[in-house]
Write a structure and sequence with these properties.
Elements lengths: L8 E5 L4 H12 L4 E6 L2 H15 L4 E6 L5 H14 L5 E4 L15 H29 L5 E6 L12 H23 L5 E8 L21 H14 L3 E4 L1 H12 L2 H11 L13
Parallel strand pairs: 1-2, 1-4, 2-3, 4-5, 5-6, 6-7
Helix pairs in contact: 1-2, 1-6, 3-4, 4-5
């Protein structure tokens, strides 16, 4: 699986719209054998299934499941159906994500903000991957890919998004640890790619301003970069280049000096001041 997903089975969460739909379109265009779509929005999911069916002209089997990945019990039930009706996926793209609240941490609500953010962004990818990973490992002869969509917020702290940052930091730590475990246990057929992008113009971060030298990226550009990294089995993808640069600066500068550079010069700490969200 170095050039395309032709003949593979691809499962995408949060697939009814936005970047999830773009991943699905890419899989269909490359001739995937089956594309499995998970989303909680039944209406949008049905529309996407119809459009993908038309585009594939019967060459790709499209399967859809209405799943709210915040419901961790529903994940196991849906995964069981997928294994029975489609089979174990070759490619898993943990794309679903949420951002709740736009205030300081003490203004957030544990039930409405903190819990669902951690469930969808951090726990759901772990639960979903745990359902399908044994099947991937067992087929040592077949290349498999796991893509975990995290965020630059999981690497560089930012005011007014503390819970979101925590959820993505957890995702990054787990995802890269999983990659190392697979390498150490000689499961070379399964490769994990962790993606940490800055702001993307999907509507999720409406009102946010990109820091200096960090433009708000289009979904199409990000999906293209993620797809290439996934096929190549690249361990980590940080977009744009300033995300990686900021990570290096944070590692070499004293805390106060980094705060001054990130906050005053690059404007990272002011990027969420006008956030409104979708």
């Amino acid at each position: 699986m170095t050039r395309t997903v032709r003949g593979a089975s691809v499962l995408i969460t949060g697939a009814a719209m936005g970047m999830g739909r773009l991943y699905a379109e890419r899989a269909v265009a490359e001739g995937a054998a089956s594309v499995v779509l998970w989303d909680r929005d039944a209406h949008a999911l049905a529309q996407t299934v119809g459009d993908l069916g038309t585009a594939s002209k019967g060459r790709t089997r499209i399967h859809s499941y209405v799943v709210d990945v915040a419901d961790l019990g529903a994940i196991a039930k849906a995964a069981q159906k997928v294994r029975k009706e489609v089979g174990n996926p070759d490619v898993l793209i943990n794309n679903a994500g949420v951002v709740r609240g736009n205030g300081y941490f003490w203004e957030t609500d544990n039930g409405d903000d903190t819990r669902p953010t951690m469930q969808v962004n951090a726990l759901a990818p772990m639960y979903i991957t745990r359902e399908f990973l044994p099947g991937m490992v067992a087929r040592a002869y077949r290349a498999s890919r796991i893509v975990n969509i995290a965020s630059a917020a999981g690497m560089i702290s930012n005011p007014r998004m503390s819970v979101y940052a925590a959820s993505k930091a957890a995702l990054i730590g787990w995802s890269d640890s999983l990659r190392l475990e697979l390498v150490r246990d000689d499961h070379a057929n399964v490769k994990v790619t962790t993606v940490a992008p800055s702001y993307i113009s999907t509507g999720m971060f409406d009102g946010a301003r990109g820091p200096l030298l960090t433009p708000i990226m289009t979904p199409e550009y990000v999906v293209d970069q993620v797809w290439k990294a996934m096929l190549a089995g690249r361990p980590m993808l940080m977009l744009p280049w300033t995300v990686g640069f900021s990570k290096v600066l944070r590692g070499v500068l004293p805390g106060a000096a980094f705060d001054a550079v990130a906050g005053r010069f690059f404007g990272v700490y002011r990027s969420m001041d006008r956030f409104t969200g979708r």
